[in-house]
Automatic annotation (TrEMBL):
It comes from Colwellia hornerae. GO terms for biological process: regulation of DNA-templated transcription. It comes from the Bacteria. InterPro entries: Arc_rbn_hlx_hlx (IPR013321), Ribbon_hlx_hlx (IPR010985). This is Arc family DNA binding domain-containing protein.
Length: 61
């Protein structure tokens, strides 16, 4: 599990309102939506490491 750190964020009121509407549409909290958008932008720009592919293990074997 990745540790989370609190960070105060100053944000334009219109952007915050738009993010709130988007998070409502996606059934996410505003915080989770902001984190999702940031993570997606980092991934698309190549600024994060790709997650390693985990093997699927059959519990019956």
């Amino acid at each position: 599990m990745v540790a989370k750190k609190a960070y105060p964020l100053r944000i334009n009121e219109e952007i915050l309102s738009a993010m709130q509407r988007w998070s409502d549409d996606e059934l996410r909290s505003l915080n989770a939506q902001i984190e999702y958008v940031l993570r997606d932008a980092l991934r698309k720009s190549g600024r994060t490491k790709p997650k390693p592919i985990e093997a699927i293990v059959d519990p019956k074997s």
